[in-house]
């Protein structure tokens, strides 16, 4: 236990490169939805977002909020219910349909002209729009800029080799005065192959630090029973707030 605690204190695992060549295809993600292998979904929403929601919103009204790799995150409804407009992107059409059904929201769907085969799903109230396509194709659809980004289960789900490209897309979507909340995990990557993938503090800095001021708001021990099946015995979640430099 002594050694383990030492690692926990430093919160950086030396073998961060071990997952570098891991690749999950879009088809594999879609299969997870079909087979209900969506252990990442939180029915009660994300507790740290709940805690920091007011800080994140800063009392501002009618914000545009982006959810990369949104799944059926219930937090999208939290923002919409407060009068903000939510845009998400998710490759699984099933996930998107489940979101609207579970939140009792009627919706319409139409093709996205700029991205062959892709669709947009819009709540009838008009304040939630979910793009069903690859995140990396999304810039072609000119979705505008955002005041807030909630990045949970997103950077950590992107294939490690695509992180730079991912951060470039994210930063291209920010509007002056933006705030960006990012959740990442720290665990021994030699024991669990991911996703979620392990993202170091240094990598967060490397990806976003030239454009954003970065503040680590929380480091929380989130270890629970299900993590034992990952072969790990500790996992820390870190929550960062990025603001304009
Ligand atoms: C770990 S889950 C997180 C979902 C959600 N953010 C949450 O907190 O519950 C990652 C999601 O991203 C989707 N996904 C993975 N790669 C994607 C990509 N390149 N473009 C769009 N969606 C993607 C997956 O289908 C999956 O639903």
Automatic annotation (TrEMBL):
Report the EC code(s) recorded for this entry.
2.1.1.67
Q: Which Gene3D superfamilies match?
A: Vaccinia Virus protein VP39
Q: Which reaction does it catalyse?
A: S-adenosyl-L-methionine + a thiopurine = S-adenosyl-L-homocysteine + a thiopurine S-methylether
Q: What's the main place this protein lives?
A: cytoplasm
Quaternary organization: Monomer.
Location within or outside the cell: Cytoplasm
Q: Which HAMAP family match?
A: Thiopur_methtran (MF_00812)
Q: Which UniProt keywords apply?
A: Cytoplasm, Methyltransferase, S-adenosyl-L-methionine, Transferase
Top EC category: transferase
- Identify this protein by name: Thiopurine S-methyltransferase
Name the Pfam families for this protein: TPMT
Q: Which residues cross the membrane?
A: none
Where does the secretion signal sit in this chain?
none
Q: Which family does it belong to?
A: Belongs to the class I-like SAM-binding methyltransferase superfamily. TPMT family.
Looking up PROSITE patterns in the UniProt record yields:
SAM_MT_TPMT (PS51585)
Native source species: Rangifer tarandus platyrhynchus
Q: Which domain of life is it from?
A: Eukaryota
Keyword Methyltransferase belongs to the record: yes
């Amino acid at each position: 236990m002594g050694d383990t605690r030492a690692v926990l204190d430093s919160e950086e695992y030396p073998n961060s490169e071990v997952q570098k060549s891991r690749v999950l295809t879009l088809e594999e993600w879609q299969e997870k939805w079909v087979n209900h292998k969506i252990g990442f979904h939180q029915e009660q929403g994300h507790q740290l977002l709940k805690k920091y929601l007011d800080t994140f919103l800063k009392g501002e009204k009618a914000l545009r909020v982006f959810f990369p790799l949104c799944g059926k995150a219930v937090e999208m409804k939290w923002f919409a219910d407060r009068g903000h407009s939510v845009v998400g992107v998710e490759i699984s059409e099933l996930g998107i349909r489940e979101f609207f059904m579970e939140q009792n929201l009627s919706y319409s769907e139409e093709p996205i002209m700029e991205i062959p085969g892709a669709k947009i799903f819009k709540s009838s109230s008009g304040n939630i729009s979910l793009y069903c396509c690859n995140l990396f194709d999304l810039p072609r659809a000119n979705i505008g800029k955002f005041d807030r980004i909630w990045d949970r289960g997103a950077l950590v789900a992107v294939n490690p080799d695509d992180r730079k490209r991912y951060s470039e897309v994210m930063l291209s979507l920010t509007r002056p005065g933006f705030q960006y909340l990012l959740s990442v995990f720290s665990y021994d990557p030699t024991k669990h192959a991911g996703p979620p993938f392990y993202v170091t503090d240094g990598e967060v800095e490397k990806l976003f630090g030239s454009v954003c001021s970065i503040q680590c708001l929380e480091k929380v021990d989130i270890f629970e029973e299900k993590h034992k099946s990952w072969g790990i015995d500790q996992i820390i979640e870190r929550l960062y707030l990025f603001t304009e430099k």
